[in-house]
Amino acid sequence: MTLLLEQAGDRVEVPILIKSLQATIKFEDKMQEELEKEFQVEITEFNRMREKGLIDPGQEGVRLERVPRVKRTISDSFEQHMKPYIRKEEEELKQNILKSLSQDQLERNSQLKVFSSSLFMFNHIKSVIKRSADYSRNQGILEVSNLIRRSLRLYA
Predict the structure, then answer these.
(1) Sign of dihedral through CA atoms 16, 18, 22, 28?
(2) Distances (CA, A) of 24 to 20, 86, 130, 135, 142
(3) pLDDT of residue 77
(4) What is the pLDDT of residue 28?
(5) pLDDT of residue 63
(6) In whole angstroms, how far apart are CA 60 and each of 36, 43, 52, 55?
(7) HEC assignment per residue over 103-119
(8) Nearest to residue 76, comparing CAs of 16, 138, 131?
(9) What is the residue-wise DSSP string for 25-79?
(10) Quick one: the chain helix, strand, coil %, rounded to 5?
(11) 3-state class (DSSP) for residue 2
(12) One digit per residue, pLDDT tens: the chain, 156 residues?
């Protein structure tokens, strides 16, 4: 998959990228769940026997003490290819900010006097953060924080 992403470069279609990433994350979650089910009984039994001193010290390294981590091992390879997704989020956020600024009005129904555009913008930022947190943990989140900073400057 990463070979295909490298070949596509910035021309990768965002919906395909996101669907591929979602499928990968779902696969990793399922594999982690299956591994935990498979090895939980064995790990529990091993720990019980070790606590009772029934395991020879030389045999301890042979058994698993915890389930290996599968989650995010494959999907982390998508990190470096998330730029098209970030650009799409930024374009949508900019368009929504500009649209809401053109239709801006003061919210008079609340105790605080707030412009409706700010409420709309912060709700949209919240949804961008939620989506991005589902897909990225490292570079992507950093790029999203930069995107938000640029969007706040645009709004100001």
Answers:
(1) positive
(2) 6, 19, 18, 10, 22
(3) 86
(4) 94
(5) 57
(6) 20, 12, 13, 7
(7) CCCEECCCCCCEEHHHH
(8) 138
(9) HHHHHHHHHHHHHHHHHHHHHHHHHHHTT-S-GGGGGGS-SSPPP-TTTTGGGGG
(10) 75, 5, 20
(11) helix
(12) 666 667 677 778 899 899 999 999 999 999 999 988 888 777 778 778 878 877 766 665 555 667 778 888 888 888 888 889 999 999 999 999 999 888 877 666 667 777 888 888 999 999 999 999 988 888 888 999 999 999 999 988
Confidence (pLDDT) at 110: 65
Rounded to 5 degrees, what angle do the CA atoms 22, 88, 27 make? 5
The domain spans of the chain are: 2-75, 82-155
User: Which amino acid appears at position 128 of this protein?
Assistant: V
Q: Is 114 exposed, middle or buried (0-12, 13-18, 19+ CB in 10 A)?
A: middle
Q: What is the dihedral of CA 49, 55, 57, 60, to 10 degrees?
A: -70
Q: For residue 71, which amino acid is it?
A: K
Residue among 36, 32, 28 nearest 78 (CA): 28
